[in-house]
Amino acid sequence: QVQLVESGGGLVQPGESLTLACVTSGFTFTASAMSWVRQAPGKGLEWVSTINSAGIITTYADSVKGRFGISRDNAKSTLYLLANSLKPEDTAVYYCIKGGKSGVMTAQRGQGTQVTVSS
Predict the structure, then answer these.
(1) Residue 103 has pLDDT above 90, yes or no
(2) 45 with 104: CB under 8 angstroms?
(3) What are the tens digits of pLDDT across the range 34-43?
(4) pLDDT cut 90: percent of the chain above it
(5) Are 24 and 4 in contact, with CB atoms under 8 Å apart?
(6) How far is it, in rounded angstroms, from Cα 39 to Cα 86?
(7) Is 12 helix (H, G, I), strand (E, B) or coil?
(8) How far is CA 100 from CA 44, 46, 47, in A?
(9) 97-110: average pLDDT
(10) Longest C-alpha distance within the chain, in Å?
């Protein structure tokens, strides 16, 4: 079965950076687009970024464009998100999902990793 295990979150100050990772198993990672989504306290799921199966095409939400970078290591079946210049409004639980933006609401998620940005 599909397994997604996110890690790398933490408590950081505004302007700092974090690298999130998602280790996957149970499906053909090399054939799947992958995405990061997040859920802030009291809010719905928000799509953050998608990368295609080859790792060549990336797309970002306007709220993170220019600050976040999505990447993948197909040899390790692992997805990454480099989050730079973090802002308090980036505070959320971050999840990885299999697939793209259209599947945000229905795709299976892991346990997520908490990112808290606060001074």
Answers:
(1) no
(2) yes
(3) 999 999 999 9
(4) 95
(5) yes
(6) 15
(7) strand
(8) 17, 12, 9
(9) 91
(10) 41
